[in-house]
Amino acid sequence: MTGIKRHFENVTVLGTGVLGSQIAYQTAYSGFPVTAWDISDERLDTAKNSLEQLAAIYEQEVDGAAGGPARAALARIDYTTDLAEAARYADLVIECVTEKLALKREVYVQLGRVAPQGTIFASNSSMLLPSELADSTGRPDRFLAMHFANQIWKHNTAEIMGHAGTDPDIYQAVVGFARQIGMEPIEVHKEQRGYVLNSLLTPWMDAAEYLLMDGVAEPATIDKTWRIASGMPQGPCEVMDMIGLATIYNVNTVSGNEKSRAAGAWLKQHYIDQGKLGRTSGEGFYKYTDQRATGEAG
Ligand code: NAD
Q: Which residues line ligand 1 (CB under 6 A)?
């Protein structure tokens, strides 16, 4: 592996929103110095609060985190709005900015200009392919996707997907890094929108939306059928409420499948436009008083 560091010393995370803050924290918790970058001081202040909250969650939910380790992780994170400063010592930059192709490409153009030649870039994009971003990085051989799941401390997959020009040694170095921060690396052998997880999950949720949209069955009936007959703990409507119906709608709208886009429009009209966004809003397909569904259709 010539010229490629096997062990990354410094990691930078671009974007400190939902996933960026989790990735920054998990990386710091695993012992790496982390630089968190965002576009404004206000965003970084919000990030500091999110990271404090994450430390508290780890103390409660992660074995061994209480009594020091969770707090120590916070001390390993630096914050900046200066991209050049963020990238200066980075062996790996994990990009977690808003899921918009043009925006991500612009960030990579800026980053490619200021980052050291050897720095590897990884995108946490959910739906974009690395080949759609690679040329904007100025270093396509050192670029790939590493996709984390929400609530990284318990849903610890890192789906790793290169494009045709990704250096295989870079790919393996990133696989090794994923392991070092406690992730289960999922090696995706070729480009696939949605990686492994969403390639499985999306058609399942789409199918439930079609049953609803076509008036075939109610949410509770669909979920009951799935739970009893498959032995799985949750049905698709419960899962969609947990993910959030706005996210489901966004996935529908970028789908290449016409019926999925129609289901998105149906979901918007019957749920989203009425403020029924899933668990976080207290109502989606079900009503929620606390963290439990009342069993009543929303
Ligand atoms: P988010 O909206 O919580 O955070 C987006 C971040 O991008 C913020 O830090 C924001 O300040 C930054 N940003 C906004 N405008 C910017 C600009 N012009 N230039 C640079 N940065 C800008 O989003 P998120 O949910 O954390 O998603 C970030 C990435 O992670 C997306 O690619 C998304 O697909 C992916 N992802 C999200 C989830 C999830 O469950 N939320 C799961 C896996 C992957």
A: 15-20, 38-39, 43, 96-99, 103, 107, 124-126, 147-148, 150
